[in-house]
Amino acid sequence: MASARLNLVLQCLIAIDLPANVAYVAYIVGMAEKHTQYTIRKVPPHLDEELRRRAHQEHKSLNELALWALARGLGLSEQEVRHHDLDDLAGTWVDDPAFDRAIEAMDQVDPELWS
Asked: What is the pTM (predicted TM-score) of this model?
């Protein structure tokens, strides 16, 4: 419906030769029927530099990379987030006397190395 309305408005504006109005209407109608638009202010310089660097490196627009980063940060990305920490191991320790005996020698301090 919006596309048909847009086409009709564009044809009318083209007929009366108003290219600036054509562009404006196309922009407004196009934005209204597709997605919400944000303006993000006070972007820290280090964040701006990194977003631009990655966008350039990945051959993406700044907008595409910012949307990807937002989705990933919110856990909404299709790409699985790979963590580089040990959170998955926290709380999983199991007492193992054989292991404790095997590493017992590591608990010995050699006084000569510390003098």
From this structure: 0.42
